[in-house]
Amino acid sequence: MSVKTRVYEGKAKILYTTDDPEILLADFKDDATAFNAQKRGSIENKGNINCSISSKLFQQLETHGIKTHYVDSPAPHQMRVKALKILPLEVVVRNIAAGSLCQQTGLALGTVLKKPLVEFYYKNDQLGDPLLTRDRLFLLELATPEQVDTIAHLALQINKFLCDFFGRCDITLVDFKLEFGLDAQQQLLLADEISPDTCRLWDNSKLRDPNLRVLDKDRFRRDLGNVENAYQEVLQRVLKAIESSN
Ligand code: UDP
Predict the structure, then answer these.
(1) Dmax of the chain from CA atoms?
(2) Mean pLDDT, to the nearest integer, of 109-128?
(3) Alpha carbon of 126 to those of 103, 145, 199: distances in Å?
(4) Is residue 114 located within the same domain as residue 220?
(5) Mean pLDDT of 135-141
């Protein structure tokens, strides 16, 4: 048995090698950061909850024909994933205006977009993850035109699936961030996580209240309190929706 080596530590996860060179172990942390790590804290049980939500969503996506890096989940805070070359892109899909879209365009919070918006950001903490244009993305050779088209298509497919799935949880999917990676065959797979850290999720029964409706990391960003409860609520609804569809 080989010793597991830490290959990468991000803000929310640590990646370790495993006995299989094609598989890594992702350990989800309770650490929470916001505003490009200027705000730091921790959310109790976040590692377990986010790993569980992500595992369930990746499994659901796989059954709907979307290829992901998910292999299995040996413990509540651990996910075994395929070793990929992660593209340095943050792919954001938006259904409703919030966050940086409102700040940068003046659109009012909560504006329902006529069609989903797919955006590419440069995953680079030092530069503050800037919004990319297509030409800048190609200038920096962050992906090929074919890869960008495939990613945009996949992102919209994933959005369609997730909007419907969260709808069954009585939750509105406002926006979310995806990351993609390439396997040894240069195949694009969905990577990273899908969780209340990476999605804006609003409780449909409380939509009129801009604070009460929030079931995601905005509770931490905006010091709204009850962060763990909100994350736990999302997990319970995800589990219930899967159970009732079986
Ligand atoms: N997001 C993320 N990681 C990032 C930046 C954004 O997971 O580094 C998610 C965020 O949680 C939200 C969506 O992507 O669901 C859009 O985020 P936005 O661009 O509005 O940035 P924010 O104002 O949240 O920093």
Answers:
(1) 56
(2) 97
(3) 21, 25, 23
(4) yes
(5) 98
pTM for the model: 0.97
Q: How far is the CA of 102 from the centre of ligand 1 (A)?
A: 12
Identify whether 202 is part of a domain: yes
Q: Whose CA is nearest to atom 23 of ligand 1?
A: 99
How many of the other CB atoms lie within 10 Å of CB of 212?
A: 15
- CA 228 – CA 48 distance, rounded (Å): 11
**Residue 68 amino acid letter:** T
Query: What atom in ligand 1 is closest to the CA of residue 103?
Result: 23
The first and second tokens of residue 231, run together, are 């994350």
Q: Which of 169, 159, 172 is nearest to 210 (CA)?
A: 172
Please tell me whether residues 33 and 133 are part of one structural domain. Answer: no
Q: Residue 137 belongs to what domain range? A: 85-226
In terms of residues, how long is the chain?
Answer: 246
CA angle 139, 68, 71 (to 5 degrees): 135
- What six digits make up the tokens of 129? 């993850």
75 shares its domain with 103:
no
